[in-house]
Design brief:
Elements: H1 2-8, E1 19-28, H2 41-47, E2 58-69, E3 77-86, H3 91-108, H4 110-115, H5 119-122, E4 135-140, E5 143-148, E6 174-175, H6 184-187, H7 195-203, E7 208-211, H8 215-227, E8 237-239, H9 249-253, E9 262-266, H10 270-274, E10 280-283, E11 299-300, E12 313-316, H11 326-337, H12 342-370, H13 392-402, H14 414-421, H15 425-452, E13 455-458, E14 461-463, H16 476-482, H17 489-504, H18 508-514
Parallel strand pairs: 5-6, 7-9, 7-10, 8-9, 11-12
Antiparallel strand pairs: 1-2, 2-3, 4-5, 10-12, 13-14
Helix pairs in contact: 11-12
Length: 517
């Protein structure tokens, strides 16, 4: 695992250049090191948006690489990388911290990192996302970075950093508008007219290779692609930067089985040969912001893919289910003509992708909600009713009067897109998450019904429903808190008071036996 991190922390010889470079990678966590040094994984993931939850089986690596000529070095160059390894997808935040720390590290090396070691003590887990509704001041050397960690209760597409009194902060903090959102307009500039196709490929979890001239371009493009489904979580694997030294190289390049559901970013031309059997290959050049709309790559047949000197393009035989949104392209073109800032163009593009994803997901959410048992069917005297099974055909019938056409102007084969989506890992991940949330809600409603059924009938005497089959604890408030069920706190406190009253009326020896937390 350490060896893989070392290989991934340096550009390969095909993309090496002088100066400073930043990029990111993602690698599978070794099974022997599974388990978290953090004690609040569950708490953080319950409160974080699904797209920002802490990874359970993968690490992110954020790299600051420097290469400059140095005659005193054996190879004639100074080459060194500073890498921040995390299980959080905060690409903007961590790359910003590296920009502040890495230059000093390259000059002073270890003493600089030792001075920054206090950062771990100054950043408890709650400062990285738990129960935080305000922004944080994160120390980085002699500077501060001001960020806001998004929460699940935030409205999708809006998480501004609130202003605060900064009179006592010298120097003034660097304000990050987002911990994770990339400049989508810059990343997608050569493929803007194909954004509809790329969105569909990500939605369906199709295998894709991103061939780029540098790790910076490949990692930005892969992260931009996987983020374009927000607020839907991309549930497939993805590798922003991948090398031939990776332990999964043979697994991904074998021709004895179909390519896995993964988006992989590479820079070594050798991958064009080893991965030419993959169904979708995106070849891009350096990302440059010009005054006009950058030259758009063309969709080409896979047969035209050459081992050497492959030109930029999308090599695929995929046919989109939905028609292109020409209005979006016109708005972006108008923004270029008016010299609209890139962040404004990115916000426009992100809003379009957000609304497109929401239009696709809302009918699924509505149908899923209809599978929930009625609240009047929940009684404290019986086990909670079951969530009805998801029937694809029933859902497809519901699209006639409650489909995406109600919120989206795009025309096309929506039914075909849904049928293909049902076979993808993204549907499986979405369904499992929603079913788990609904089960917890059902469990919470059942516990609330049990709590409401507790009736005091005399001093020190209460009537309780009998423990039900499968109930691990006779105390509903213990069960609710252990399983983190969304039961009203006042209900739990009232039941705790009843139980305390009853236990307090018993002989002392029985009180010790029946004591509850």
């Amino acid at each position: 695992q350490k060896t893989s991190i070392c290989y991934l922390s340096f550009p390969d010889s095909y993309s090496g250049g002088l100066g400073d470079t930043q990029f990111s990678f993602r690698l599978r966590q070794a099974s022997s090191s599974r388990g978290s040094p953090f004690q609040d994984d569950g708490r953080y993931n319950r409160e974080a948006p699904v797209t920002l939850q802490r990874e359970a089986a993968h690490y992110f690596g954020y790299v600051y690489f420097r290469q400059v000529k140095d005659s005193s070095m054996r190879r004639g160059y100074f080459q060194k990388s500073l890498v921040l390894v995390s299980r959080l997808p905060y690409v903007n935040l961590f790359q910003c911290l590296l920009q502040l720390i890495a230059p000093e590290y390259f000059d002073k090396l270890e003493p600089c990192l030792e001075a920054a070691a206090g950062l771990q003590q100054q950043l408890p887990a709650e400062q990285l996302g738990c129960s935080q509704r305000s922004s944080e001041q994160i120390p980085a050397g002699r500077s501060f970075v001001r960020v806001r960690i998004p929460s699940r209760v935030d409205k999708p597409g809006s998480s501004p950093v609130k202003q605060c009194n900064q009179e006592n902060l010298l120097p003034a903090p660097l304000v990050l508008p987002s911990v994770h959102e990339l400049d989508l307009f810059r990343c997608f500039q050569p493929v803007l007219i194909h954004i509809q196709m790329l969105w569909e490929l990500m939605l369906l979890g199709e295998p894709m290779v991103v061939m780029a001239p540098s790790p910076s371009v490949s990692s930005e493009m892969v992260l931009a692609l996987t983020s374009c489904l927000a607020p839907l979580r991309y549930c497939c694997d993805f590798r922003p930067y991948f090398t031939i030294h990776d332990s999964e190289f043979k697994e991904y390049t074998t021709r004895t089985q179909a390519p896995p559901n993964i988006v992989v970013g590479v820079t070594n031309p050798f991958f064009i040969k080893t991965l030419q059997h993959w169904p979708h290959i995106l070849r891009v050049g350096e990302l440059r912001m010009a005054g006009d709309l950058p030259k758009q790559v063309k969709v080409k047949k896979l047969a035209k893919l050459k081992t050497l000197d492959t030109k930029p393009g999308i090599y695929t035989s995929y046919k989109t289910f939905l028609h292109k949104d020409k209005t979006l392209i016109k708005r972006l073109l108008k923004g270029i003509q008016r010299k609209r800032p890139s962040e404004v163009q990115s916000a426009l593009l992100r809003r379009h992708l957000l609304e497109l994803t929401q239009s696709f997901i809302i009918p699924l959410e509505h149908y899923m909600a209809s599978l929930m048992p009625l609240q009047r069917a929940i009684t404290p005297w019986k086990n909670p009713p079951q969530i009805r099974p998801f029937c694809q055909e029933d859902f497809m019938k519901s699209l006639e009067h409650a489909g995406p056409q109600l919120t989206c102007v795009l025309k096309g084969d929506w039914l075909g897109l849904y049928r293909r989506f049902f076979k993808s890992p993204n549907f499986d991940g979405w369904f499992r998450q929603r079913h788990r949330e609904m089960s917890q809600k059902l469990e919470a409603l059942h516990l609330e019904a049990i709590c409401e059924a507790v009736v005091p009938i005399a001093p020190g005497v209460c009537e309780f429903p009998l423990p039900l089959k499968g109930v691990n604890s006779p105390f509903p408030q213990v069960r609710a808190r252990c399983q983190h069920l969304p039961v009203k706190e006042e209900t739990l406190q009232r039941v705790s008071l009843y139980i305390d009253t009853v236990i307090g009326s018993l002989p002392e020896d029985l009180q010790a036996v029946l004591h509850h937390p």
